[in-house]
Design goal:
There is one protein chain. This protein has 180 residues and is of the alpha+beta class. The protein has one domain: Jann2411-like fold, CATH 1.10.3300.10. It is 43% helix and 13% strand. The chain has helices spanning 13-18, 34-43, 55-73, 80-90, 118-131, 163-179, and strands at residues 95-102, 105-112, 136-139, 148-151. The strands form 2 sheets. The protein has a two-stranded antiparallel sheet. Helix 4 (80-90) packs across helix 5. The protein is globular and about 50 Å long. It starts with 12 loop residues before the first helix and ends with a helix.
């Protein structure tokens, strides 16, 4: 899904956050200030914490998540510093352990006190992606596109952030070559 101001196509909130500093063609920072960050949180339907956080902290976290995305896209291990930042934000989420019954069995799960602040939601999204052994982070193979996306396809063969934009031209050119 796309927003007029923001590209929301990473299939994970944390990748959409990272992608605010990337794009197709020349790099354009879509979060130049706290007001833009607030608009991004609203576009992602997150509880904005733009007024509660130093904007420099928000940008540093985005930069660290960019390093994490690059490492995962290159099949390298997640940098320890990135994991520490994610864990630090997750510790700030208020909630409690709760015993629940599902399908006749008891389980203990974390129950949040309320919707998390945007940066905590971004950290949770990154943690969830890291914990999913079937999910792969990819960087778009489109010419001039630097966006990241998550690939949960069975074959792990997705190459483009948006097939008909970044991949469509390549497919057409390959098809033309085959017809000549």
């Amino acid at each position: 899904m796309s927003d007029p101001e923001f590209l929301l196509l990473g299939d994970a909130v944390w990748l959409d956050f990272v992608n605010t500093s990337r794009g197709r063609g020349p790099r354009l920072d879509r979060l130049p200030d706290a007001a833009a960050y607030h608009r991004w949180t609203k576009a992602c339907k997150l509880r904005s914490d733009a007024d509660a956080r130093d904007f420099a902290v928000i940008r540093r976290f985005r930069n660290r998540l960019g390093v994490l995305a690059e490492a995962l896209a290159a099949d390298r291990p997640a940098p320890t510093a990135c994991i520490s930042l994610i864990n630090g934000l997750l510790r700030t989420a208020g909630g409690r352990q709760q015993l629940t019954r599902q399908s006749g069995a008891w389980s203990v799960r974390f129950a949040p006190d309320g919707p998390p602040a945007a940066l905590v939601a971004v950290a949770h999204s990154a943690a969830t992606s890291l914990a999913d052994p079937l999910l792969r982070v990819r960087q778009c193979a489109g010419a001039g596109c630097t966006l990241f996306f998550s690939d949960a396809t069975a074959a792990k063969g997705r190459r483009w952030c948006v097939d008909d934009i970044c991949g469509g031209g390549a497919w057409v050119e390959r098809r033309r070559g085959a017809l000549r």
